[in-house]
Structure formats: C-alpha cells, structure tokens
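Page 42, continued from yesterday. The earlier attempt failed because a stray header line got pasted into the input along with the sequence. Redoing it now with the clean sequence only.
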Amino acid sequence: MTTTHQLLPTAFVAASERIRTAKIRSELSVQEIAAPEQIAPHAIALGAGVSLTGEEASLDSVHGAGRLILLHDPKMAAEWGNEFRFVCYAQAPLEIEIGTDPFIADVAWSWLTDALDDRGVKYTAIAGTATKTISTGYGQLSHQPDGAQLQLRASWTPLETDYENHVEAWSELLCLIAGLPHDEGLTSLDAHRHKQQTQH
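This time it went through. Structure tokens are written below.
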C-alpha cells in the first residue's frame, strides 16, 4: 500500500478493508504486493499465481498469473467517473490450437465482463486489450516446441463500494484464462476447444 500522506483517507482505508475480505478461488495463491507509486496517491495491489496441483503457487506461476490494483485519486474523479479505479492484468499459456483461434481474445474479454456482471457490480468506463501471442523457436532455440500465451489488461471504475466483488470477478477471470472450470461448472478453454472441434 502506498501513500504520499501519513494519514490515509477514510474512503481508501474502507476500500482496502473490503478488498481484503474477498473470497478468492482456492486454485489461486494471492498476496498483497507493493502497489505502483506513480499512478495515484493511494493504491492497494494484489498478485496471484495459479496452482494446478493444490500446492502453493508463486506469483509468477507458469500456469497463469495476474495483478489487480485499486487506485484512489480524488483529482481523477471527473475523468474516471469516481475517485477509485481498478486496473487488472491476467495471463496464462495456451495450447497452440486454442492460441490460433481467431475468437479467443473476444472470449477472454467476455470472461471479464461476465464475471463482473455475474456479481452484480456497477461499473463504468471499462477499457482494455486482450492479446494472444504465438512463439516459434529458431537457431539454438529451435528444439523448443511452439508456444502460445493469452494476456488481458483492463481497467474500469467501480460505482459502488462492493470492492470485494470486483476482486472475486478478477479471481474468476484468472482461473478461466488458465483453463480451470468456471465456478458454476461451466468449463473455460476446454469447453471452448470442444465446441470448436464439434463444429468442424
């Protein structure tokens, strides 16, 4: 948590406390981490790593990782639509056949908006990018198999004080990008891949 003042604003303290009460999916190892100091006067940040084995995962897990930051800056209220704004990042490796799917970026974005909407949160000014990359090794790296990765970066402005619900939505997003089942039993990338296979 960062601050340029010794006394933290009451609204930020309350928001931080609510964030710390969020119910995180069991497949994630989540820690409060140092927030960037140059973006806003006050911020709280979480880092998460995906575990596929049930053991503690590092924040840079090869199975998937993410960051979530809540910024607080009253001077930005007019631009953001509120004095708070969430910034999130999520990434995970993909199987090549999924990475070449032209719709996978759209699917990833819908996972974020659906996760927010499913929790009934109110938000505005959402923006972001979904990026898929395919890598092929050459020369001394030619022995490495082709790889693919999906990254999603987004930000949005919460309109109410249910900040823990935003954290839980990010938790769901990260698990879905990593290929884990949806909380309600709907599978993520596996279901998408199966759907594509049955259509061909």
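Notes: The first strand starts at residue 28 and ends at 33.
Reminder to self: strip header lines before submitting.
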